[in-house]
Amino acid sequence: MSNKTDGLYVAATADVASPTRRRFLQGSAATAAISAMPFSLSLLSSGAMAQSTTKEILSGCHWGVFKGVVEDGRAVKFIPWEGDPHASHMLDGVRDSIYSQSRIRYPMVRRAWLEQGPGADPDGRGEGDFVRVSWEKAIELVAGEITRVRGEYGQQAIFGGSYGWKSPGRLHNCQTLLARMLNLTGSYTSSSGDYSTGAAQVILPYVSGSIEVYEQCTTYPVLAEHTDLMVFWGCDPRNNSHISWQVADHGAFPGVEMLKAAGVKTISIDPVRTKTADYLDSEWITPKPQTDVAMMMGIAHTLLSENLHDQEFLDRYVSGFEEFKPYLTGESDGQPKDADWAAEICGVEADTLRDLARRFASNRTMLALGYATQRQHHGEQSTWMLITLACMLGQIGLPGGGYGLSYHYSSGGAPTHESPILKSIDNGSGVKAAEGAAWLAGGGGVSIPVARFVETLLNPGKTMQHNGREIELPLIKMAYWAGGNPFAHHQDRNEMLKAWRELDTFIVHDFQWTATARHADIVLPSTTSYERNDIEQVGDYALSHIVAMKKLVEPQFEARNDFDIFAAIADKLGKGYEFTQGRSEMDWIRGFYEGAKIEARAKGMEMPVFDVFWDSNKPLAFPLKDENKYFVRHESFRNDPILSALGTATGKFEIYSRAIAGYGYDDCPPHPTWMEPIERLDGPTTRYPLGISSNHPRSRLHSQLCGTSLRGTYAVQNREPCWINPKDAEPRGIKDGDVVRVFNDRGQILAGAMVTNDVMPGVLMVSEGGWFDPINPREIGSLCRYGDVNNLTPGIATSKLAQGNCGQTGAGDVEKFTGDLPEVTVFSQPKSMSDSETSA
Ligand SMILES: Nc1nc2c(c(=O)[nH]1)N[C@H]1C(S)=C(S)[C@@H](COP(=O)(O)OP(=O)(O)OC[C@H]3O[C@@H](n4cnc5c(=O)[nH]c(N)nc54)[C@H](O)[C@@H]3O)O[C@H]1N2
Ligand SMILES: Nc1nc2c(c(=O)[nH]1)N[C@H]1C(S)=C(S)[C@@H](COP(=O)(O)OP(=O)(O)OC[C@H]3O[C@@H](n4cnc5c(=O)[nH]c(N)nc54)[C@H](O)[C@@H]3O)O[C@H]1N2
Ligand SMILES: [Mo]
């Protein structure tokens, strides 16, 4: 496959990006080389297309660039773009999401709320007793309620954090649009951080001077050439890089293929047999979940005691190793963190740990860490300890050595192209600042750590520690969500249900009847990306193309664009023009493109005029420079630690942080420390016998697509699969395909047993994102019929430092379910829908 045929190209105007046509083509060839997997599809010839009303329309989504085949106004198939090196099998489900049974059709209001007013019968949320209303009425209700809540409780009483994986696109970014509407009309409580890297992104600035988790890693071509040993530590690119935050490029797939072709030795340290390990036939080591810090320390202790550590590197590039050393050796607390100690905790044999230390030190070793080990109680420590280990190995900044924190995510490690950044719609805060921020006097502008929303609802006025500061938790009476699914993503569902009763009003925009929409008071049907026009970049790191996300079909039922919904609300609140600036959808998109065109010109590239780009029906390709193809993370720091100092206080890697020491947090000491999580497999105070992992699903993006036909490809008796090792299944009389009940003190779910050796003994794996389907929504603790694992996870914070979520913490037990099997109802229209088809 040649990239020449599958993209429109920018032309070079100067020497900067592509000095000669030859160099330019070399750049393209380089792209083709990393996307070496041919993906040939015979597209309908244009002649065939002319005979029917079939059209192939270019678009993009989290799952990649594709063409929507549209016949007589209906999207009949999504075919992957020919330039995609590894098209996602999820595209079929993406198409189905337009038409699935779970589509929200009309604006709906919960009956009790409509008839008795805000705050009425909060326990009844989730019962599905909705009344259909007209759009006019819905907008009036929302605008009126925003005004009421602000007037009675203050600006901060509206929570507009609205976290989640809204669809890509620079215009129809429903979270930004929500913030824009709220900012232009007043203020609100927002949120900071995310559920992905809540702990790591807060501690890393202290350790390596930037958030790093979303920054480029040493690229795959470098790894293929220089790395002897690649360690995937809870890190699964071949699952997790199916998607990107923007439009997926899938560059990790050819990247991992390059490792295989080059014969790089790989190890997977993971309680689950990953897709990547399977593909590479990696050596598989299975620590007990949540014990990686101890395991890393056992390896570090071996390095030190066998004098395998790189003292020169530590002296030159690292601060605080001397403060950490007495803890590692046990001099400070009487407990050497040696391999024997670590083996007791993590369950991996001490000899294996010693062997790993020796192999890490004697090879060019890349430590690739995923995010799961930091989405755990005390999750700050695993990232910190991994970097400590890499510092001791002294290979950071060398080609193919050191560590990488994003190899699994959005194809980190796939080289970054020479591309401008598309402009996007903004959240209106600038306009607010220009107006003199009069609302500030009203007490708006509060921000809480994103995963502490439930704690906030339950404890208004409480003081919370966060990253060296104190936050007074605001009183919240309304939550407004667009583009996220808190009833999937947040932990401890039953605590959450209780907290939700504190709200007067919960407003949700979505296109699917998720559990979140079902628990709302006002539900507004939004369009999918495939019912509107937008524009986006391809690859979060690769930035290889700009793609038109074209409208394929008309909005289904009464769905409206979030943009138009928020514009109507802003208009009701007197800020309609400020919201739209009088510009149409295509005006905005053209503007974003023109902004990028100017930036491209400054970089020596000439993008085609907008209409040529848009009408070409092809993604616009950007060149790849050699220096980006062979990028080595922290190379410049290694070469010149003074001029290219890290952003930490000392300019070096910090294994001891004076700033963190100053905070005095009991749950986040000033150097990496092994701390028992509240519960884990074989934890000293854990009541339940099995650990629970909740990995990111293989055939979904979180909860997205659970309501589509894709579910049929993996569900077990229409329940979410629960992976269980035969050693745990047999004594419990559980057979493959049985419905099981998974439970602990926090909650209980049904799931479908998948008996497999791909999960280690002692661990259950139920992927996050299964739709919450309580038998009795009024009853807290009610059995979830489908299998939402967040009924079982704890709602606690990682620590006072980051206040991140602990989705990958948990323990419980499982039994064969022998009762009458309840029908799963969460994927169909809410129960009152049939009698609500006529508008109230
Ligand atoms: N136990 C456990 N829990 C976890 C995790 C874990 O590992 N374990 N992982 C965590 C992580 S990393 C994350 S990122 C979160 C993910 O949590 P979320 O991002 O909240 O999950 P999604 O299912 O992607 O929800 C996105 C929602 O936005 C809707 N949507 C998409 N496009 C649009 C649009 O244009 N307009 C509107 N109005 N709606 C739209 C979708 O239909 C969907 O309902 O989950 C977290 N929760
Ligand atoms: N297909 C698909 N891809 C996705 C997503 C999706 O929903 N579906 N979500 C995207 C998002 S928002 C994010 S943030 C990333 C998430 O990326 P990650 O957080 O890295 O993904 P996880 O699936 O939670 O875990 C990755 C691996 O860590 C392992 N693991 C779990 N606990 C432990 C542990 O205690 N120790 C060790 N050593 N390993 C452990 C798991 O078994 C799994 O193989 O993925 C992104 N990619
Ligand atoms: Mo995430």
From TrEMBL:
PROSITE patterns: MOLYBDOPTERIN_PROK_2, MOLYBDOPTERIN_PROK_3, TAT
Annotated EC: 1.7.2.3
Domain Molybdopterin oxidoreductase, chain residue ranges per copy: 103-571
GO molecular function: electron transfer activity; molybdenum ion binding; molybdopterin cofactor binding; trimethylamine-N-oxide reductase (cytochrome c) activity
Protein keywords: Metal-binding, Molybdenum, Oxidoreductase, Periplasm, Signal
Residues covered by the Molybdopterin oxidoreductase N-terminal domain: 59-99
Chief localisation class: periplasm
InterPro entries: Asp_de-COase-like_dom_sf, BisC, CT_DMSOR/BSOR/TMAOR, Molybdopterin_N, MoPterin_dinucl-bd_dom, Mopterin_OxRdtase, Mopterin_OxRdtase_prok_CS, Prok_Mopterin_Oxidored
CDD domains, alphabetized: MopB_CT_DMSOR-BSOR-TMAOR, MopB_DMSOR-BSOR-TMAOR
UniProt binding sites for Mo-bis(molybdopterin guanine dinucleotide): W165, R375, N485, H489, R532, D562, N790
Entry note: cofactor: Binds 1 molybdenum-bis(molybdopterin guanine dinucleotide) (Mo-bis-MGD) cofactor per subunit.
Entry cofactors: Mo-bis(molybdopterin guanine dinucleotide)
CC annotations in GO: outer membrane-bounded periplasmic space
Entry's localization field: Periplasm
Tree of life domain: Bacteria
Residue stretches making up the Molybdopterin dinucleotide-binding domain: 693-805
Transmembrane segments: none
GO biological process, one term: anaerobic respiration
The family this protein is said to belong to: Belongs to the prokaryotic molybdopterin-containing oxidoreductase family.
Protein name (record): trimethylamine-N-oxide reductase
Organism for this UniProt entry: Marinobacter psychrophilus
